[in-house]
UniProtKB/TrEMBL annotation:
<dbReference type="InterPro" id="IPR050775">
    <property type="entry name" value="FAD-binding_Monooxygenases"/>
</dbReference>
<keyword id="KW-0521">NADP</keyword>
<dbReference type="InterPro" id="IPR036188">
    <property type="entry name" value="FAD/NAD-bd_sf"/>
</dbReference>
<dbReference type="Pfam" id="PF00743">
    <property type="entry name" value="FMO-like"/>
</dbReference>
<keyword id="KW-0285">Flavoprotein</keyword>
<dbReference type="InterPro" id="IPR020946">
    <property type="entry name" value="Flavin_mOase-like"/>
</dbReference>
<protein>
    <recommendedName>
        <fullName>Cyclohexanone monooxygenase</fullName>
    </recommendedName>
</protein>
<keyword id="KW-0274">FAD</keyword>
<keyword id="KW-0560">Oxidoreductase</keyword>
Amino acid sequence: MGSLPSPEDYDVLILGAGMSGMCALHHIRKTLPQLRVRVLEAAPDVGGTWYWNCYPGARFDSESVSYAFSFDKGVLDEWRWSEAFASQPETLRYLRLVADRLDLKKDIQFNTRVTTLHWSDERRLWKAVDEHGTVYTARFVVSCIGFLSNPTLPNIPGIASFAGQGFHTSRWPRELQGKQAEAALAGKRIGVIGTGATGIQTITALAQMPNIPSLTVFQRHATWTVPLRNTPLTPDQAETYRHNADSIFGLANSTPTGFLHQADPHKTAELSLEDRLAHYERIYNKPGMAKWLGAFSDTYTDRAANEEYSQFIAQKIKDRVHDPGLANRLVPTDHGFGLRRVPLESGYFEAFNKEHVHLVDLKETPIQTVTPGGIQTADGKEHPLDVLVYATGFNAITGSFVDMDIRGREGVPLMGSSAMGEKEKRNAGASAVWMDYRPRTFLGITVPHCPNLFMVLGPHQPFGNAPRSIEHVVEVVVGLLATCADKGYTFVEPTPAAVEDWTTHVISCSDGALLNEVDSWMTGVNTNVKGRGERSVARYAGSLVEYKRRCRACQEAGWEGLEMK
Ligand code: NA7
């Protein structure tokens, strides 16, 4: 087996020890044991998303059994999920077990946030610097930093003046978890801004806690959300799943999104109204993402089809909320069902039937300012608060890269925009590789002007059931590294033509999707971030199966599209 001619500290530096980084570390070590690999992780623990997002109610929308890593039989044999859709604490326990069983921690350096990453043209290596000033050099860098990892606070005046406890959901204080949370939050008037997937889980959990005098939900847009239908898994069921693990992963790997659900192949109008309603009812009663992904094949491309299914779901929501006026505010009216990421809930709408839970509709009464004592809305009303939770989402996908000063060949910055905010100004420039957060990649794995940088769950990759994508992309990255080790290559970069073709292909995969007409993190919009007002395509909307086919074709053609030397 070949090795890399490497005068630098490491052959491979992996950024991040979430699921992507853990998977990358394991497979690189296993396939290429001669390489020196190091993971740098900002947090004090493994887990990434599942470490940071420890707010009450955080849990999978993927079936637990389809989410696990599929490659280690030892861990699969040992681990039993206790619920069909596991909670964050259980998932973090699982990931810690994986880290222990695969002995990952010896190659992970925690509490290490990389702030700069510069390519050296002369030495053909990356130089990373962490926030303490320590320098690391490596021939290759594998970015495993996640696509929803850079939290954004709302751009509302007065946030700094709040005298109570205020925090973003993905920086939920660790002392406010589990039973401790109930004790610590007792007697507190709580406000939550944001009703996306995170807000919905948080609000539902907070509404069920005892001794909370008021929970005020500040909603800018209502969100389409449908029941998760979670259940405990009995030991027998868990055992059956363990036996069938291969076929479960096989099924997930065969669907367009890596989930255990896929669209009904019919077009809506091909069936009678009676049959259509029966289908809606059937998928509505299934657990998990079936309600979103199991609709008809044109539900998210045909306006009339989408309207019909949206009406069906709207009625389901209205049936659950006692006050009809409140129900109307909780049903989205400005976009159809499924055109933003559909969160799954377990009692969200019923929470609003409780006396102490209040909805403030920001379309009627926008927030004017945060005050020391709470929130003031445009109708002049003060909403007194002791705790203010920002469930306001992330600077998503390309936004994950903005806090690092990344410069590729000839010092060209990765990120750049004339409209970027203070934090990003150091990267501002007219010649950035990803101007205005718009990615340019080849296969979503390699980046022009940034040789030897590989991304797992980077822009232009499929973002369905994440571990299914992660395992596949890591396999491709290991293939690239193995070729370099065999041939002694020290330079890998996509050709301009390959980047152009791939970027055009990714954009064309989104053609015709109604979700292109709606602002959300999936279309690149974040109203709290300067320069993120325009929609863009940053996720691969072709199927996971097609994505894999294209990666395989590239590899079989001798890594066609990549310059390797
Ligand atoms: P999302 O889905 O981006 O949701 C953010 C929420 O915060 C959404 O309801 C926003 O309202 C609201 N928001 C954001 N900024 C503001 C301001 N300035 N004022 C009021 N309300 C605001 O993030 P999540 O964390 O919930 O979920 C992200 C993904 O993580 C999720 O899709 C899963 O894949 C896991 P808006 O609707 O934009 O009006």
